[in-house]
Amino acid sequence: MAVSLPGLELSNPIMPASGCFGFGAEYAEYYDLSVLGSIMIKAATAEPRRGNPVVRVAETPSGMLNAIGLQNPGLDAVMAEKLPWLAEHFPDLPIIANVAGTLTEDYVEVSRVISTAPNVAALEINISCPNVKHGGITFGTRPEVAAQLTAAIVAVSQVPVYVKLSPNVTDIVEIARAVAGAGAHGLTLINTLTGMRIDLRRRRPLIANGTGGLSGPAVLPIALRMVDAVTRAVDIPVIGMGGVSSSRDALEMMMAGASAVAVGTANFTDPLACPRIIGGLEPLMDQLGIDSLAQLQAEVDAEHRPDRHRSDFLKEN
């Protein structure tokens, strides 16, 4: 069940996705968080953010829309309170710190500071949030802009940098290649898809923001397709996410090429979703004749990248 990624030695591949788990304290009332492979904590910005006006969440068939707007207490509070709490209660749990911002300078400064926290093992750079008017997805839709931001963050970070990609683009592979070429150590995908629902009585969108990010089981097939495409195109590892709610979903994500799996919306309907998924992986692997996740990764990698492996061999010999 162990998985090794840049900066991350995980006892298992399952972790809660950023934005769906806060900073862990509420879920720690339900179970011992040390059973998780890692935690992707809620996004941190340079200054506190109140987020978007309410209504910010709406249920949809097989999913939900959200437009939280990156509400968070700000970098100072995360460094002084949130990360120390996790270090005290779960000292061996590697933390992936999600970073967001409005300007390049915001991203760079938050990344520089938060990467110094002793329990932060990696950064996740959010260039894909569809629910903020400035920053977020602004950086994630143009390859050259995404690459420039990635390079600037890699230059100051003390831990490996993973970049979170948006599905709301014409070609996610183009963005992935640009970010990988700029020095990212890994990728996470996908973020939510932009969607809308209408309140028939009010004749207005259900979400005050107008649009929101669609997540939940409905997006799993899209996430699988994009993870498959990206992992065939780049050499850096991918943490896959989007609609995962069962052990079968998680294993599908890994068979699509993901090296680890993040669970998002499922945590809202079932606070025990992550330990349930972790507990179901080994029995499912036994049924399928999979001895280890390392074995599965090797098989998938060989199928995804045969040309690259062949050219590497020719260069070395």
Automatic annotation (TrEMBL):
Subcellular compartments: Cytoplasm
A GO CC annotation given for this chain: cytoplasm
Listed cofactors: FMN
GO biological process assignments: 'de novo' pyrimidine nucleobase biosynthetic process; 'de novo' UMP biosynthetic process
Principal location class: cytoplasm
Associated pathway: Pyrimidine metabolism; UMP biosynthesis via de novo pathway; orotate from (S)-dihydroorotate (NAD(+) route): step 1/1
Superkingdom as given in the UniProt entry: Bacteria
Residue positions binding substrate: K42, N66, A67, I68, G69, L70, N126, N191, T192
Cited Gene3D superfamilies: Aldolase class I
Amino-acid positions noted as binding FMN in the UniProt annotation, renumbered to this chain: S18, K42, A43, N98, N126, K164, I190, G216, G242, G243, G264, T265
Residues annotated as catalytic: C129
The protein's Enzyme Commission number: 1.3.-.-
PANTHER family hit by this protein: DIHYDROOROTATE DEHYDROGENASE (FUMARATE), DIHYDROOROTATE DEHYDROGENASE (QUINONE), MITOCHONDRIAL-RELATED
Subunit structure, as described in the record: Heterotetramer of 2 PyrK and 2 PyrD type B subunits.
Family statement: Belongs to the dihydroorotate dehydrogenase family. Type 1 subfamily.
Protein name: Dihydroorotate dehydrogenase
Organism: Acidipropionibacterium jensenii
